[in-house]
Amino acid sequence: MHDPAPILTANGPGSPESSGHVELRSDTFTLPTPAMLEAASRAPLGDDVYGEDPTVTRLEALAADLLGKEAGCLMPSGTMANLTALLAHCPRGGKAIVGHESDIYVYEAGGASLCGGIVYDALPNQRDGTIDLADIEEACTVDRSDPQIAPPAVISLETPQNRCGGLPLQLDYLAEVGQLARRHGVGLHLDGARLFNAAVALGVTPAEIGHYADTIQVCLSKGLSAPIGSVLVGDRKLIAHARRMRKMLGGGMRQSGMIAACGIIALTEMTDRLAEDHENATRLARGLSRLPGVRLDPGPPVTNMVFFRIRDDRYTTRSFIAAAARRGVRVEELGRGRIRAVTHAYVGREAIDRAIAIFADLLASGPRGAEFPARHESATMPPR
Ligand SMILES: Cc1ncc(COP(=O)(O)O)c(C=O)c1O
């Protein structure tokens, strides 16, 4: 086996920083750490479809324990973890109550409808990422004996809520939705792709967040730097069902201990450092808020995501993003003319300061040559 460490150290060849650009599009660009690659190369392995990969079993138990649940199941992705959860909670023709800005609804290819015959009931997310309790109550209050009605079977919340500024849901809100779900006999699923960021931001344990939900999915491959994987946790019965759904979707993996070994490092060594990413997000937001032509939206970050708009007639959102990319800072548009910048382990303080300086220069000097908006782009993007 070759020695992987030199390829993938934070500033080594192949890393986002080594290529000279500041990668702020997503924390999914993080690379596995040398400790992960070392652990993957030494992990005891077996066939996990037979339930015989000891490293996978260890990771699943660890994740379940951290989140206060009975069982866990390693999934290839957050998308599959969310989908298997909805399939486990909801029968065909049942209703999944989701936020209209949730990843499940916006970015997961309608999987629950396609694979499970499930109806999405997409309720408005508020600016803080919550769904109004009255709206959830109304969506749950149906006459189950009426054959016209798709009966609600699961509520899905997301924390932190990505498209609402990466804001974590408060524990008292989760408690209220949990009570409401129980009262109506529906399940509560939590898309906790970045749940450890939420825990750090709220100063609580992951289990305190997980307490109110029946199933939770956490991603290993975002700010925690593992290359692949999510874990779905819940009670034994739901997880056994989700495991069957995973196999049906083609997600049963064999020697997946190689992935799980990285996941164990992610959960044991990479969660505390997320506070650093949050500090860097605050630093970036402070720098941006001093620039004319920048407006933070919704406001200062709470986790590792900074959302902002460009209010400068010389740029459209798209032309600003393209100009920044040409100068070595990568950000992306995340709906309705907002730009998202995500901090992570490969963006240190120096890189943040470099990004601020480049944004400042773009706004001070205006577009040059190719940086002018294309003729068909209006300078102020229409709302979507
Ligand atoms: C909130 C949220 N949930 C789920 C996912 C899906 O995860 P994956 O990309 O592993 O399928 C993402 C991906 O970015 C996400 O941001």
From TrEMBL:
Residues with N6-(pyridoxal phosphate)lysine modification: K222
Pfam families on file: Beta_elim_lyase (PF01212)
GO molecular function, one term: L-allo-threonine aldolase activity
One Gene Ontology term, aspect cellular component: cytosol
Example GO BP: glycine biosynthetic process
Family: Belongs to the threonine aldolase family.
Entry-linked PANTHER family: L-THREONINE ALDOLASE, L-THREONINE ALDOLASE-RELATED
Protein name according to UniProt: Threonine aldolase
